[in-house]
Write a structure and sequence with these properties.
By secondary structure, this protein is mainly alpha-helical. The chain has three domains: about 5-95, no CATH class; about 100-170, no CATH class; about 180-215, no CATH class. The chain is built from ten helices and five strands. The protein has helices at about 20-30, 40-50, 60-75, 75-95, 100-105, 110-115, 125-145, 150-155, 180-185, 200-215, and strands at about 5, 15, 55-60, 190, 195. It has a three-stranded mixed beta sheet with strand order 2-1-3. A two-stranded antiparallel ribbon has the order 4-5. α1 runs antiparallel to α2 (about 40-50), α1 packs across α4 (about 75-95) and α3 (about 60-75) packs antiparallel against α4. The longest helix is centred in the middle third of the chain and has 21 residues, at about 125-145. It starts with a strand and ends with a helix. The model has no long low-confidence stretch (mean pLDDT about 80).
């Protein structure tokens, strides 16, 4: 049975991609002397042996351990060490704090992305900067720990936009863009129930509170 999925460190399951394994070994290969390298054929053989395990799902740590053992079996101890270092560096990058530059840009008021995301706030004010700095910390923790990797990748690639990421760590959001005027003028549906356009001010206020409550 061919490998179909890989379980990443954050627990998410992604499709198996042999090219990623090949690329990782090749990168380590380039960092050692020619005598310490393995051939492309041997890299392919490692992948074949891995797939011959007949396990449809493998953890990323198990795959990396398998590769290291195969490199050492071939007597390529320097390469195996380089691959371990590469693996360790990737872990550090994945776990590293990513807020330093963004926070410094906030203080210097040169962070255009945050300015566009929070266009209703004046980034020159100290109180606003404190709020935005807290938001950058929330983004960092949310992207590294709280949200699944495929969702973060989609956000980074522009496939989706995860709004109010700077509030996500607190399980809240900042914006509630509901067209209340349209819902009051033309009626709306909540919980599969039709709410017609209110005829009086008091009823309109009641409907408005229900709309807000339903969206919050």
């Amino acid at each position: 049975m061919a490998i179909q999925h890989v379980i990443k460190r954050n627990g998410t399951k992604v499709p198996y991609d042999a090219d990623k394994i090949r690329t990782a070994i090749q990168k380590a290969n380039k960092e050692v002397l020619a005598s310490e390298r393995v051939t492309d054929d041997y890299i392919n053989q490692i992948i074949i042996d891995l797939e011959f395990l007949n396990q449809p799902t493998l953890a990323i740590e198990g795959i990396q351990d398998f590769i290291e053992s195969k490199l050492m079996e071939a007597g390529k101890y320097v390469l195996a060490k380089k691959y371990i270092v590469y693996r360790y560096q990737r872990d550090l990058i994945r776990k590293s704090n990513t807020t330093d530059e963004s926070i410094l840009h906030l203080v210097r008021t040169t962070n255009k992305e945050v300015g566009e995301e929070n266009s209703n706030k004046n980034p020159m004010l100290l109180a606003t900067q404190r709020d935005l700095i807290a938001g950058e910390v929330s983004k960092d923790i949310s992207t590294r720990i709280l949200l699944p990797e495929h969702l973060i990748e989609a956000h980074k690639n522009g496939e989706i936009h995860f709004h109010d990421l700077d509030y996500f760590i607190q399980d809240m959001f900042n914006c509630c863009l509901v067209d209340i005027a349209d819902m009051l003028d033309n009626g709306t549906v909540m919980n599969d129930k039709l709410i017609e356009s209110p005829k009086g001010f008091q009823v309109a206020c009641t409907v408005m509170t229900q709309i807000i409550a339903a969206n919050c």
